[in-house]
Amino acid sequence: MAAPSGRSGWRAWAALVPAALLCLAAWAAAEPGTAPGAAPSTAEFDVRPGGEVHSFSRSLGDYGCTFTYSAQGGTNEQWQMNMGVSEDDGLFSCSVWRPQGKSYLFFTQFKAEVKGAKIEHAMAYSQAAVGAQSDIPLKQEEFEVSEAAVSHREGKFRFELSKLTIVAKTPRDEL
Known about the structure:
The chain is mostly beta strands. The chain has one helix at 6-29; strands at 41-47, 53-60, 63-72, 77-85, 91-97, 106-115, 118-127, 136-137, 143-145, 149-152, 163-169. The strands form two sheets. Strands 1-4-5-11-7-8 form a six-stranded antiparallel sheet, with helices on one face. A five-stranded antiparallel sheet has the order 2-3-6-10-9, with no helix packed on it.
């Protein structure tokens, strides 16, 4: 991906670099065998259309992740939830995504919540990277991030979702 051009584009690019580093650290921490107390977890689930609100939740040690959504059109799609905790127990990561890349469902709402940690960075994508394709992020106005959740923004979200990533800071006991 080429860097954005112009002065405002450079600021946007510079803001993405620290976030990308956080994501890389979380993914590296999620490699098997790196977190002695909480092995990384991957769970598959079906995202179902039909307009009803559905949720999928998993826990990893003291931390949890819940994906809640409503979708229309098409048939069930196979999705995954990946969770990991850094070796020093400082970061918790949760990703919800469609491994095939692009979802063909029409999402009317979505929300991913974490428990036991505070979100440091979250990103939503209309297309997940697969093969030679890259992740395509949603526009910032399409979703919102709080300390505990990333969710669609009513009236701004354009109904496309294929991936959500969250990196959260875990509480630490200070001596």
